Amino acid sequence: NPFIGSAVTDGTNSTGVTQTAKDITNTAKNGTIANEAKNITNNATENMTNTVGKDLTTTVGGEMKTTVTGKTTENYNGGLETTITGEEKHTVNGDQTNTITGKQTTTVTGDSSLSAKNITNKASEKITGQIGNDGKVKSEMTADGITNTAEGGTIYNKSKDILNEASGDILNFADGEIGNVATKITNITGDNTVTSDTNGTTFENKVH
Fold first, then answer.
1. pLDDT tens, per residue, the chain with 208 residues
2. How many CA atoms lie within 13 A of 49 on its CB side?
3. Which residues of 42-57 are buried (b: 16+ CB within 10 A; e: fewer)?
4. Backbone dihedral region for residue 83 (phi beyond 0: left; psi -120 to 50: alpha; all else: beta)
5. d(CA 74, CA 84)
6. In the prediction, which pLDDT does 185 show?
7. Sign (positive/negative) of CA torsion 188, 190, 191, 192?
8. Which residue, among 174, 170, 198, has the nearest Cα to 184 in the 3D structure?
9. Which of 196, 146, 154, 198 is nearest to 176 (CA)?
10. SS (H, E, C) the chain
11. How far apart (Å, rounded) are the C-alpha atoms in residues 176 and 64?
12. Dihedral, 134, 101, 86, 60 alpha carbons, nearest 10
């Protein structure tokens, strides 16, 4: 087989170039192989494998573009830290699934918005929505119920219709006044109906 080989050694270290009709092998086990040029182009019609025993540093002075027509798999066993000075954009044309076995913390110093056709939030224990760090304004949802808190403030509900339905009791507690303002108020207790409107108050008992 045609063969060209060259080697340099100092008795301890050695480098070599082996060239056949099919392959070229560059060897510098204890040293460095350096390529320097204005432009460097690597083309592989099939596979390319890069194995780094220690650190890898890549510095790009301009743009960097990567196109993969197949599937990309990345494993970071020691962790991953990414710092982006400018804008970051992600476009997913299919589905996206994120699985986190530990905790997740997201901090946004500006505004945050989420838009979707449907949004579903599930928690095995509790969901808390809070404004500020003191916990004075918050909403907590657990398996036992929903608690809305606005210490020193107001909880305001505004709608065309507001319906409250309970299989048990509905209780209102106030240190001050409890007031109802409406064009007509109807209270039904068993067979008794009390109706108050601008014409006065009427009492009705279905039994009598």
1. 688 889 899 988 888 889 898 888 999 988 999 999 999 999 999 999 999 999 999 999 999 999 999 999 999 999 999 999 999 999 999 999 999 999 999 999 999 999 999 999 999 999 999 998 899 999 999 999 999 999 989 999 999 999 999 999 999 999 999 999 999 999 989 889 999 999 999 999 887 6
2. 1
3. eeeeeeeeeeeeeeee
4. beta
5. 19
6. 92
7. negative
8. 198
9. 154
10. CCEEEEEEECCCCEEEEEEECCCEEEECCCCCCCCCCCCCCCCCCCCCCCCCCCCCCCCCCCCCCCCCCCCCCCCCCCCCCCCCCCCCCCCCCCCCCCCCCCCCCCCCCCCCCCCCCCCCCCCCCEEEEEECCCCCEEEEEECCCEEEEECCCCCCCCCCCCCCCCCCCCCCCCCCCCCCCCCEEEEEECCEEEEEECCEEEEEECCC
11. 66
12. 150
**Measured distance CA(194)–CA(189) in Å, rounded:** 8
CA Rg, the chain, in Å?
Answer: 36
CA atoms within 13 A on the CB side of 140: 12
In the block, residue with structure tokens 């204005």 = 38
Max Cα-Cα span within the chain: 119
**Alpha-carbon gap, residue 173 to 39, rounded angstroms:** 78
